[in-house]
Each structure stands twice: as structure tokens, then as C-alpha cells.
Amino acid sequence: MPNVSLRSRTKITENNAMEVDEVKVENTPMEPISPSPADPLTPPIGVDVEKPEPYSDAWYVIRKDNHKRVERRRRETINQAMDDLVAVIPGNEKNKSRILRRAVQHIKQLVEQIMALREQNEQYRETNQQQQEEIEELKARLDEQQNDHDQEEQEQQQKPASHPAEIGESS
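The structure corresponding to this sequence follows.
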């Protein structure tokens, strides 16, 4: 019995809107794949195939076809990477060399921004450190003045109460 699941498929429309479709997918047990008409040299899975004699005509054909497949995969990988790059780099270039130039330019701009932000961050740290030191100085001065004030108050309380007549004479 096939197992059915839902998968999401995302696509970008002409006006750059994103659409998500749910697609029903049947998961059936894998069956051996027969050779496709486009690729008659690929044997079905599980079938033993004798390798041709090295340097024979058949050997060269297989070697050439393998090289074509590898090269096609390489180009597909590069094209996919270029598409990914176009998606993250500003601009709407189609030419690969222009895409790469824009990518280099964008990366250089980002590096410059990072350097400027690091410098600004360092300046903020230095300013913050100076302000913290100033705060500590002011706290120490405040504590010192508070202690002086408390000491003067204690001295005032420890003096015997003076008579009003004595206060007038001392002035």
C-alpha cells in the first residue's frame, strides 16, 4: 500500500510574490530503474554488467558518457550557486561575470561596513570606560563629602548646648 504525504512547494511569481502549494506525494517502494531512452548505456540497478576491455571503442564511449554526466552535474551545481548568489546580491544581473563582479563589490562593501562598525564599537567601549571611571570618581567624591557632612553633624551634636547669651558674645 503506498504511503501518501503532503509536501510544500514554493515558487516566485512574475511580480516577485511568493506562493506555496501543497502537493500530494505517493511514497511507493523503490523498484529497479530501467535504462531511460535518453541514456541507453546506464544499466538497470542490480544488474551486473561486464566492463569493456580498456582502450576499446566501448570503453571510450563509456568514458566519454561518464565525463559528459560529470560535466553536466558540475555546470548544474555552478548554475545553482549562481542563482543562489543572485538571490542575495543586490542588482538584477543575468551575466555570470557581472554577477561575480557585483558579488565581489558587495562583499567589499560589507567588509568596509564591518570595519567601520568595529571601529565605532571600540570608540563606544573607550567612551564607556571613561564614563565608568568618571562615575567611580564622582561616587568617591560624594562618599567623601557625605562622610565630611556626617562628621560635622556629629561634632555639632557632641558640643554642649550653648546659651543664647554666649552665642551673641562670641560674634
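Residues 141 and 147 are 10 Å apart (CA to CA).
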